[in-house]
Amino acid sequence: MADIKYYDVILKPVVTEKSMELMGEKKYTFLVHTEATKSQIKEAVEKMFAGAKVAKVNTMNNEGKKRRVRGTMQFGKTAKTKKAVVQLTEDSADIEIFEGL
């Protein structure tokens, strides 16, 4: 396993209709490093966003899709990804990157 620092764990936020609805319940969705564990994700969110206290983390692994290469019968795969849905506690501060959306 690679030595992953907390600032390498969260890659970018996921902004979709479903993730926007979940923000009302203090659930935030992020794309994370594929080898990051739930405890590493929790630590990264609490260190990167001031006042955020994580109650629980749910993760899902997405395998890469099979794609044709250059119009021939050769196939390749896209990169695999990992998403994390982070539930904050009731007394926690909101994450500010989602405030203006």
Key phrases:
4-stranded antiparallel beta sheet, alpha+beta, 21% helix, two-stranded antiparallel ribbon, elongated, 101 residues, 3 helices
Report on the structure:
The chain is an alpha+beta fold and 101 residues long. It is elongated. It contains three helices and six strands, in the order αβαβαββββ. One of the early assembly proteins it binds 23S rRNA. One of the proteins that surrounds the polypeptide exit tunnel on the outside of the ribosome. Forms the main docking site for trigger factor binding to the ribosome. It comes from Lachnoclostridium phocaeense. Part of the 50S ribosomal subunit. Contacts protein L29, and trigger factor when it is bound to the ribosome.
Mean pLDDT: 91
Major sheet: order of its strands? 1-2-6-3
Structural class given helices, strands, pairing? Answer: alpha+beta
Percent of residues in β-strands: 25-35%
Shape: elongated
Q: Tell me the number of helical segments per DSSP (H or I, 4 or more residues long).
A: 3
Radius of gyration, in angstroms, nearest whole number: 16 Å
Query: Sheet with the most strands?
Result: 4 strands, antiparallel
Distance between the termini: 36 Å
How many beta strands in the DSSP annotation?
6
Helical fraction equals 10-25%
